[in-house]
Amino acid sequence: MATRPNQRLAPSDLPTTSYAVLGLLTFGTMSGYDVKKVADQSLAFFFTPAKSQIYSELRRLVSLGYATEREVEQDRRPDKRLYRITDRGRRALRDWLDTAEVESGEIKSPFLVKVFFGAHMSREALLAQVKEVRRRDAEELQTLKGIETVIKDQEEMFFPYLTLKCGLAAARAVLRWEDEVIRELEKREGP
Amino acid sequence: MATRPNQRLAPSDLPTTSYAVLGLLTFGTMSGYDVKKVADQSLAFFFTPAKSQIYSELRRLVSLGYATEREVEQDRRPDKRLYRITDRGRRALRDWLDTAEVESGEIKSPFLVKVFFGAHMSREALLAQVKEVRRRDAEELQTLKGIETVIKDQEEMFFPYLTLKCGLAAARAVLRWEDEVIRELEKREGP
DNA sequence: TCAGCCATGTAATGGGTTACATGATTGA
DNA sequence: TCAATCATGTAACCCATTACATGGCTGA
């Protein structure tokens, strides 16, 4: 069946992950391995799928006609499959982006669950865990700052930079909160 | 086999959800429906399981001996099952809390994925979506502030209040970021 | 009188994670 | 020489979500 060239695609209602992968394919032809790497270096702050997830999304994108697959033989490396976004895929991506329904997003934090039930813990155990998380979060902030220096003046990175700024703002706020928690816990019943 | 009373339980490595439900049971005997309500009113910011998830967790807790189940017949209401945490369950909870490995948590934000690929959208579509998300986030912040006024002076809410402060800090930071994004988008190529 | 919420759950589906596989290259 | 990393994926599992089911009460 022939579809008219600029027709809007039926909103095929895939999970966000599919569109994220589809979006990454706009950067160029990639293998699943490549997609994973790029994702880890760009979307990582708010989107972190497993490899296997990416592979199955890519297969799905092909089955929907949103991408094409081409096998490439390699020596010294396992053969790989390269995926390229199609026009139909670009249209699907734009349709999803333009769809007015936005999901704001969620946080899943085992650490905060622990803090919530902190009354059942020794002060020392909780303090140690807060400090550990704080240390990692500070590292994370450094990483984000490193990315910032690289992309902040690249005009084509305007939108990624916006999301990075969200990460920076959130990271800084959380770090300040962690410092406050540490202070509060340390003054709560003396040493 | 008889276990010694205060023995450490083998770290049975359940998902965080299990321990969250177990933790909520320390507040008192509850049905699955109750657990869901309490969770929505307390952990909601960083932990939002579906009802069915809670029901299956409760069944698992029983099967592990971490909770007991008692059927209660009701008229005008469907019968219900009440769950009560056991000593063994309390020990399992404490052991999990004291375990040094903490997972910091993750963010999953379809909205940020959209912003990331904002170059593929019309400025108007993106702006509208940012404003919509900002509106919801402002509402969310109001809700958190409402909770704050209720619990901020209750000593027994000390730890829940700590997590609430994290939510407040993050929500404020994200709102400021959203305002910045709106300003940036509005000045980007004139009206 | 009728939609919507209270109240209690089950069933079906699928999204996403961890573990499994393989082999070459590189740094300690 | 041995672990780590690059490079590429598949298989199994299970966590978690959405849809389904039931019936009384309540407010417009």
What's the helix-strand series of chain A?
HHHEEHEHHH
Give the terminus-to-terminus CA distance of chain A: 77 Å
Mean pLDDT of chain A: 90
The poorly predicted ranges of chain A are 1-5
Helical content of chain A (DSSP H or I, runs of 4+): 55-70%
Number of strands of chain A: 3
Outline of chain A = elongated
Radius of gyration of chain A over alpha carbons? 22 Å
Structural class of chain A: mainly alpha
User: What oligomeric state do these chains adopt?
Assistant: homodimer
Overview of the molecule:
Two copies of one chain form a homodimer. Chain A has seven helices and three strands. With 191 residues, chain A is mainly α. A two-stranded antiparallel ribbon of chain A has the order 1-2. In chain A, a hairpin with a 7-residue loop joins strand 1 (67-72) and strand 2 (80-85). The longest helix of chain A is centred in the last third of the chain and has 30 residues, at 158-187. Chain A is elongated and about 65 Å long. Chain A starts with 15 loop residues before the first helix and ends with a helix. The model of chain A is unreliable at 1-5 (pLDDT under 50). At the A-B interface, helix 1, helix 4, strand 3, helix 5 and helix 6 of A face helix 1, helix 4, strand 3, helix 5 and helix 6 of B. Strand 3 of chain A pairs antiparallel with strand 3 (106-108) of chain B, so a sheet runs across the interface. Chain A binds a DNA duplex (28 and 28 nucleotides) through helix 3.
